[in-house]
TrEMBL record:
The keyword Membrane applies. The chain crosses the membrane at residues 41-61, 68-88, 116-136, 143-163, 183-200. This is Amino acid transporter LysE. Keywords: Cell membrane, Membrane, Transmembrane, Transmembrane helix. It is found in: Cell membrane. It is a multi-pass membrane protein. InterPro entries: LeuE-type.
Length: 205
């Protein structure tokens, strides 16, 4: 893959990773609830979910969606339901969900699970890869070039959210955020519910 083409690919992946949404809210919430390690676990798990979609894209995800639109619709509605469930959970957590370890404790396992599921349950990621990442895939592309596409998406996504988790868990930043955890939980919950409603109301792109 030419370097100029890879730079375009990296820029698109970076814009996708850095755009505000449920993924950022999820990493933020787990960092607040458990500190740096759960935040990093959520970030890495989310990146693996992104990598799965990237892998499916280089294998022809777009053609699969065209052939089986009902399957894609089922995935979309299932994703919307999961995002809504996360949103309701965040709204019900209030202040204690992120601050009081005895309330809703965040563990590495929970963070990793949510990181993966938020990535897989977000139909916007599917459409992002089908609409944009698939443009870099050609029928005669080598296996090495396809691997570069997948690894680029994984490393950029994981690297960004690990930086977010590390930055938010800084000794000066985390207490400030924890003092406002009830507002962060409310904003996170509303954001997730809004995305779920947007998914079921029609196409995202």
């Amino acid at each position: 893959m030419p370097f100029s083409l890879w730079m375009s690919l990296a820029a698109i992946c970076a814009m996708g990773a850095m755009s505000p949404g449920p993924s950022l809210a999820m990493v933020l919430r787990h960092t607040l609830g458990g500190g740096r390690v759960p935040g990093i676990a959520a970030a890495i798990s989310h990146a693996l979910g992104v990598g799965l979609y990237a892998l499916l894209t280089v294998w022809g995800l777009g053609e699969l969606i065209v052939r089986f639109p009902t399957l894609f619709q089922a995935v979309t509605w299932g994703g919307a339901a999961y995002l809504a469930w996360l949103g309701i959970k965040a709204l019900r957590a209030g202040r204690g969900g992120a601050v009081n370890a005895q309330a809703v404790a965040t563990t590495r396992g929970q963070a990793a699970r949510d990181g993966m599921l938020v990535a897989l349950a977000n139909p916007k990621l599917i459409l992002f890869f089908v609409a944009l990442l698939s443009q870099f895939v050609t029928p005669d592309m080598s296996l090495a070039a396809r691997a570069i596409i997948v690894l680029t998406a994984v490393i950029i996504d994981g690297g960004w959210y690990v930086l977010v988790a590390v930055g938010l868990s800084h000794s000066r930043v985390l207490p400030w955020l924890q003092a406002r955890a009830h507002w962060i939980n409310r904003i996170t919950g509303l954001l997730l519910l809004a995305l779920a409603l947007r998914v079921v109301s029609g196409p995202i792109l």
